[in-house]
Amino acid sequence: MSVMKSREMLTMYSYLSGTPQILAPRLGGVNRRHQKPRLLAFGVQPGYTTPVAPPKPDRTTGCDKPLVRLLELARSRAADIDRFYVRLRLRRVRDLDRLFREAHARAFATVDCLRCAACCRSPGPRLNPADVRRLADHLDTRPAAFAERYLSIDEDQDTVFRTLPCPFLEPDNRCSVYAARPKACREYPHTDQKGMHGLLRITARNALLCPAVYLVTKDLGRKLNPRG
Ligand code: SF4
Ligand code: SF4
Q: What confidence score (pLDDT) does residue 124 get?
C-alpha cells in the first residue's frame, strides 16, 4: 500500500457545510454511474493508493453538500467504524457477500456518483500495464508517451496518476476516458465483490472516503450488530 503524499491528501475531501437530509437524485433506484459515461473510482484496496490520515478540508471538490456531510459524519465516527470492521473480521458471517451486495445496491440507489466524484480526486487509482495500454490506445497515443504525460511512480513503486484530481475528471464530474478507465476505477468501492471478508480492512478505510461505503457500513451495522 502506498502512502498518500500530503499534496494529494489536501485534495481528498471537500468540507462544505451542509445537512444530511437529502441525497443525490435517484434514477429508478440505479446508480447513475452505471448508466452514464463517467467513472467511479478507486480507493483503498490492493491496486489503489492508500491514504493514511484523515483528509484536510478542501473546498475545491464538486461533491454535493449532503454527500460531503456524509463524509464528515463518517470521519466523526471513524473509531466506531474501525471497531465495527475489526469485530466483523473476527466473525464468520453467513452470506456476508450477499449482505454487502444488497447494502451496496441500496446505497447506490441513493448516492449519485455524478454528484460526488470524491474517489476521482483522491486517493487515486493504481494503474496496471493493461490500464496504461488501454488508456493510451483510447487516446490514440503510445503507452510510453501516455506514461510520460500522465503517470508517475510513487514511493511504493506503484504506477499512479501524476496529478490529482485525476486529469481525466471533467468539471461536471464525468470521466473523459470512461470506456477505458483503469480497472481500479471500475471496481471501486468494492462493496459488491466476492470475498468481502478479505476486504473488510479496506472497506473500513473506504467508509471514510466514499459516502456510499459509509451508508453500506451503517446498513450492515444495523443488520449484523457485531457487538451482539
Ligand atoms: S480515470 Fe480518472 S476520472 Fe476516470 S474514473 Fe478513474 S479516477 Fe475518475
Ligand atoms: S466516492 Fe463513492 S459515492 Fe463518490 S463517486 Fe466515488 S464511488 Fe461514487
A: 86
CA of 5 to the centre of ligand 1 (A): 19
Cα Rg of the chain (Å, integer): 17
Ligand that comes closest to the CA of residue 110: 2
Give residue-wise pLDDT tens across range 19-39: 222 222 222 222 333 222 223
Task: Compute, in angstroms, the gap from residue 123 CA to the centroid of ligand 2.
Answer: 12
Whether ligand 1 lies within 6 angstroms of the CB of 120 is answered as yes
Please state the atom number of ligand 1 nearest to the C-alpha of residue 170: 3
- The domain in which residue 116 lies consists of 2-223
Name which residue leads in pLDDT, 118 or 53.
118
3-state secondary structure 138-169: HCCCCHHHHHHHHEEECCCCCEEECCCCCCCE
Q: Considering its fold, how many domains does the chain have in total?
A: 1
Instruction: Return the pLDDT at 36.
Output: 26
Residue 98 belongs to a domain: yes
